[in-house]
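Before the break, one more example. Copy the sequence into your notebook; we will annotate it together after we see the structure.
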Amino acid sequence: METVVSKDGTTIAFDRVGKGPPLILVDGAFQHRAIDLTSSRLAELLAPGVTVFHYDRRGRGDSGDTAPYAVEREIEDLEALIVGAGGSAHVFGMSSGAALALAAAAHGLPIVSLALYEPPFIVDDTRPLPPPGLAARYTELASEDRRGEAVALFLTKAVGLPDDMVAQLRNAPVWPALESVAHTLAYDAAVMGDTTIGSVEPLKRWASLQTPTLVIDGGDSPAWARNAVSAIAETLPHAERRTIEGQTHQVSADALAPILDAFFAERNGAHIEGVIA
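Here is what the structure looks like once it is written out:
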C-alpha cells in the first residue's frame, strides 16, 4: 500500500501495479480495495502495459475522510493521485466513479483519456426515479448506526433491486463490508447530483469536453442503463461507444480488460502486450 495526501490533508491509500503510462481506476459505490475483486483483477490484466493505480476513495478502506464532504474534495483526491503518477494519467471510472471521472476531466485535471463503464445516469422514464432526499437519509441512517438500513435503501431505491433480493444479500459474507462504507453512499449521491432526474439535460454540461472518451455498457444491462450510455456517448464530442455482449453492470474484468487495452494502447502508441490474444 502507498499513500498520497490530498489538498485538504486527507490521506488517500492506493496500490500500484504494472509498468508503463499511469492508469487510475475510480470505483463506484461501496467499492474499495479490500473487497473489490473486479478492479484488482482488472489491474492484474492491464499491468503488462500500464501502471495501474487502484485507490480507496475517501471514507473507504485505508483512506481518510476529512469533513465536511464535497465533490470538489474527491476531485482533489484524484488530482493528488495524478500528480503522484507523474502529472498526467489515463482514467477509468466504474458506475458512479465514471461520473466522478467526468467531473474531474471537466474540472481540467490532466486526464489523457477517459474510459467509463455504465455511469448510472437516468435519462428517460424507463425506470422509476430515485425518491428525493436520499443523500440526507443515507447520512441520517449511518449517523444513527443503522448502516444496514442505509445499504438496503440504496440497493432498493437507487439501484432498483427487489426487496426480496436485498433481504437475501443481508446474509451474504460481503454485507458487513458494505455496511462499513454506508456513510459514503451520500458521497456518491452528491457525485451523481441531478443526473438521475430522467432527462438528458444535465449531461449537456459535458458537451464541450475535449478528452478522448470510451463509454462502455453491457449487452445484458437494463434499457435505462444502456440508454444512459448512449446519451452520454452522443453528448461528448470525442466519445466512442462499445457494448460487451453478455455482460451486465457487474462486468467481468476478463471481458472488460481487452476493451480498455485497445483503447488505452491506441493512445499510448503501443499495444498492451498479453491482454488481447
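DSSP finds ten helices and eight strands in the chain. Residues 270-277 have pLDDT under 50 and may be disordered. Try to locate both features in your own notes.
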